Amino acid sequence: MRVPFIKMHGLGNDFVVLDGRAQALPAIDTRLAAALADRHRGIGCDQLVVLEPSATADFRMRFFNADGSEAQSCGNASRAVGLLHGAPARIETLAGLVSTTPAENGIAVDMGQPRLDWQAIPLAYAMDTHTMPVAWEDLEDPIAVNVGNPHVIFFVPDCDAVDLARLGPLIENDALFPERVNVNVATIESRGAIRLRVWERGAGLTLACGTGACATAVGAMRRGLVDASVRVTLPGGPLRIDWAQGRPIVMTGPATEAFRGTFDPADFGVPA
Asked: Do domains 3-110+255-268 and 118-247 have the same CATH topology?
């Protein structure tokens, strides 16, 4: 049995999408997800995305990081799947329901409301998530936001000057974060613009991270650094983030289908 896949990306954050809404898929586990994500021996991607039928929404979406771990949410993948679906959709995820809508500048995703309490991040112990009294070398006083998965955000003079390849994994795996954490370093360029780099939990440095852009925008808005609508520019390109207190976060940006193909699960040690 050969399994069809669709290779997609959102601003360079790339995905292998398996559509199991109308056909059976092989069992997806940590080993198979990591094998498919391998850029040398597999198809290659930052995340594997699996679409399944849902009893509560139009369909269900699961996300697996490049290391095979399952994630609760992925904003860029939500836009890619919204493009693939081609119409407004309500989608079930481990983080709850999200909705996607075709928009003039790509796909708009309702990401739900941010979670700000320390238990919801989660942190290992009680702490003010608005200005956390912790530091890793020169990265200090971060803010924590959960937008379906946990993020910690550092506002710095120049995010490009931060050695994120070295500090990212140290912070991701710190005992303060029992479920690990995504690490964001951001520079405020104006009331309407943020520059951002992200070390993604389970994936490493990435060209773009939709949930990271959402979390960073919310953190900047909570601190009064930017307005309620802001452009967040990542190495792969810009996203528009809109949020008001008590309202869902709306992320708008492009998504692209790159190519389609098939693979044989037996090549990865999975029975047909």
From this structure: yes
120: Cβ–Cβ under 8 A, 6 or more apart, which residues?
Answer: 146
Q: Check 45, 74, 159, 214 and give the catalytic one.
A: 74
Task: Give the amino acid at 43.
Answer: I
User: Could you say which of 45, 159, 209, 214 is catalytic?
Assistant: 209
Confidence band (pLDDT; 50, 70, 90) for 269? confident
Token couple for 155: 């506002």
- The domain locations on the chain are 3-110+255-268, 118-247
Catalytic residue check, 214: no
Q: Global pTM?
A: 0.91
Average pLDDT on 29-41 reads 94
End-to-end CA separation in angstroms for the chain: 6
Q: How many CB atoms lie within 10 A of CB 116?
A: 16
Which pair of tokens denotes residue 90?
């309500």
21-34: per-residue pLDDT in tens? 988 999 999 999 99
Q: Is 74 a catalytic residue?
A: yes
Q: For residues 73 and 98, what is the distance between their CA atoms, to the nearest angstrom?
A: 9
pLDDT at 268: 84
pLDDT band with cut points at 50, 70 and 90 for residue 89: very high
CATH 3.20.20.60 fits 3-110+255-268, yes or no: no
DSSP H or E stretch at residue 184? strand 182-190
Instruction: Report the C-alpha gap between 177 and 233 in whole angstroms.
Output: 26
- For domain 118-247, give the CATH superfamily: Diaminopimelate Epimerase; Chain A, domain 1 (3.10.310.10)
Q: What is the pLDDT of residue 271?
A: 65
Helix 75-85, helix 210-222: angle, nearest 10: 120
